[in-house]
Amino acid sequence: MKRTAQVLLLVLTGLGLLHTALFTDLYLRYVKEGLRPLLIISGALLLLLGLAHAALDRGSANEEKHDPGHDPGHDPGHDHGHDHSTAPRIAWLLFLPALSLLFYAPPALGAYTASHAGSEAVKQQKRFAALPATSPLPMTLTDFTTRVQQDKELAIKGRSVEMTGFATPVRGGGWDLTRIIFTCCAADAQTVKVHMYGTPAPPANTWLAVTGTWHTQGALGTRTAAAALDIHATRRITQPVNAFTDDLPLTPS
Questions:
Q1: Which pLDDT tens digit goes with each residue over 112-158?
Q2: Phi, psi of 193 (to 5 degrees)
Q3: d(CA 168, CA 237)
Q4: Which phi and psi (to 5°) does residue 128 adopt?
Q5: For residue 197, what is the enclosing H or E element?
Q6: DSSP bridge partners of 210
Q7: Rounded to whole angstroms, how far apart are CA atoms 169 and 108?
Q8: H/E stretch holding 61
């Protein structure tokens, strides 16, 4: 890879990061919202490095052009028996991720990833606050699972709850309501699922708000209780901006 191409790669990567983090919400497919400032700083640094290298190379070229003793065919820094003028052809593939940031953002994690992952183990919780009287009661998938399997007061029994997530078809039939959770970025993503009963599986990755009651299976308030819901109603929703958390949904602005 020639020096000019290396400079171009730095500039394109910097522009791609700045475009994704400053002018779109696409970065939320890959990292948490709190990392946005770091993406902007990284993009700016890469862009500045690329422009600085281009300026230095241009200055060096002008000096060599006006140096009568300079031999353009000889580089004293490379007199050790092999040629550094080219890099392996595969190095050109580095341009693909840089260009994708500008022209084609890779798709977000979804049902395919979730179908090959287990559900995140809920943390042990000893005390639970009283549930509001709201009906249906908005809950996250994690809160619902924790209540079902650990709340000895059985406060969830008979309560109508509403949860949001995307549909993940299950092998052999049925489907799960799913959320993928980023701790930092897509590389450390975890999955939480609640199995759905009562309706055929929607298309994979369909975002839904689902209302229903706990599906009786196992002993409520113990680990034997299934994280499952008997569906009373569903409605399609737009993917929320906080899609990669297990928080109550925030609709796109």
A1: 889 888 777 778 888 899 999 999 999 999 999 999 999 999 999 99
A2: -135, 145
A3: 15
A4: -125, 135
A5: strand 190-197
A6: 163, 234
A7: 17
A8: helix 36-65
Comparison of pLDDT for 247 and 16, the residue scoring more:
247
- Residue 42: which of 78, 10, 90 has the closest Cα? 10
Structure-token pair, residue 7 = 């400079």
- The 10s digit of each residue's pLDDT in 78-107 is 555 554 555 566 667 777 777 777 777 777
Give dist(CA 176, CA 169) in Å, integer: 6
Rounded to the nearest 5°, which phi and psi values hold at 84?
-105, 10
Longest dimension (CA), the chain: 91
- Exposed, middle or buried: residue 89 (CB in 10 Å: 0-12, 13-18, 19+)? exposed
Q: Are 182 and 244 in contact (CB under 8 A)?
A: yes
Instruction: Please check the confidence at residue 219 and state whether its pLDDT lies above 80.
Output: yes
Amino acid at site 184 = C
3-state helix, strand, coil in the chain (%, to 5): 35, 20, 45
Element (H, E) at 230: strand 228-236
State the residue for tokens 């009373």.
Answer: 232
Q: Identify which has the larger pLDDT, 193 or 187.
A: 193
Return the SS3 of 71. coil
On whether the CB atoms of residues 205 and 114 are closer than 8 A, the answer is no
Flag whether the pTM goes above 0.85: no
Of 245, 253, 244, 249, nearest in space to 30 by CA:
244
